[in-house]
UniProtKB/TrEMBL annotation:
Reaction catalysed by this enzyme: [glutaredoxin]-dithiol + arsenate + glutathione + H(+) = glutathionyl-S-S-[glutaredoxin] + arsenite + H2O
Family (UniProt): Belongs to the ArsC family.
Name used for this protein in its record: Arsenate reductase
CDD domains, per database record: ArsC_ArsC
Organism of provenance: Photobacterium piscicola
GO molecular function, one term: arsenate reductase (glutaredoxin) activity
Family annotation (Pfam families): ArsC
EC number of this enzyme: 1.20.4.1
Keywords: Coiled coil, Oxidoreductase
Amino acid sequence: MTITIYHNPRCSKSRETLAILTEQGITPTVIHYLDTPLTIEQLQQLYRQLGYNNVREMMRTKEQQYKEQQLDVETLTDHTLFKAIVSCPKLLERPIVVNSDNDKAAMGRPPEHVLSIL
């Protein structure tokens, strides 16, 4: 099984999700997305894999940068929201776990939710 986690080691949910994967005997590829920001194309792929209907579902809408950039304006395009995440990776909700074998992704909120794609 090929598993990737988009991880922030300072986030308790991200650490808990990584621990759950380890308990399952999985050694995932760990991407520290704050250090290695994703591209718009990578974000679009994650969005598709997550099966979301709104880009804001994968955004941290309570972050100060979200409010400062007025990203809550409903007329903003998906592309504009993806660009905001690229320019400020902190806006990406975490953790996200991807199973490349079945092309599915899950948000680790709660951490146990990632078990659904294994």
